[in-house]
């Protein structure tokens, strides 16, 4: 059986305890350290664990990124964009050089009734590959009907589905459709992004 001496750190601590000014109180005397047959543990470098860092709150993580057809689940609603494509007619013609882009949207209330979500057209934005940001046009798409209500309060466990219609330059391409925070003085940050 092998015996190991005390680690150097323990010896240095004992030696330093004996050194000091004459005004220092004497170090308490305790039982002598026992030698052990087990080797001393080597010091290890500590790496930060995942639990050491604070979790990032959902509102600081940025918007959810989804594909068309996927559902965003938020604190008070589930939202799905089922499709978004160039073309289609509406109750009026688009401006010259423009086309309609209808998007089929479904919104469901997932609250227990405390805060009823009120989706509106101003909660939506289409971004193009050439960096234009467009709000839905105030038109009814044809033959794709009904339009998503301009603003509707959803009762608990209730859903609404309809079409949003964006007017897009024929030369532009859809980059993404955003669900955004509807703020008093204009659009807020994106909550979810479909592309």
UniProtKB/TrEMBL annotation:
Residues 22-54 have a biased composition (Low complexity). Keywords: Signal. Residues 22-68 are annotated as: Disordered. Residues 67-179 form the DUF4352 domain. The keyword Plastid does not apply. The keyword Signal applies. Residues 1-27 form the signal peptide. This is DUF4352 domain-containing protein. It comes from Plantactinospora alkalitolerans.
């Amino acid at each position: 059986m092998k015996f190991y001496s005390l680690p150097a750190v323990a010896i240095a601590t004992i030696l330093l305890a004996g050194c000091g000014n004459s005004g220092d109180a004497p170090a308490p005397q305790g039982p002598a350290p026992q030698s052990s047959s087990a080797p001393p543990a080597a010091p290890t470098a500590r790496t930060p664990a995942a639990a050491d860092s604070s979790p990032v709150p959902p509102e600081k993580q940025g918007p959810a990124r989804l594909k068309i057809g996927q559902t965003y689940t938020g604190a008070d609603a589930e939202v799905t964009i089922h499709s978004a494509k160039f073309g289609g007619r509406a109750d009026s013609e688009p401006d010259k050089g423009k086309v309609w882009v209808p998007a089929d949207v479904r919104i469901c209330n997932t609250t227990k009734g405390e805060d009823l979500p009120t989706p509106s057209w101003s909660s939506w934005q289409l971004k193009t590959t050439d960096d234009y940001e467009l709000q839905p046009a105030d038109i009814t798409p044809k033959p794709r009907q009904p339009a998503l209500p301009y603003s509707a309060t959803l009762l608990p466990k209730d859903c609404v589905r309809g079409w949003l219609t964006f007017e897009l330059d024929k030369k532009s391409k859809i980059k993404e459709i955003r669900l955004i925070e509807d703020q008093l003085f204009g659009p807020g940050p994106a909550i979810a992004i479909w592309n």
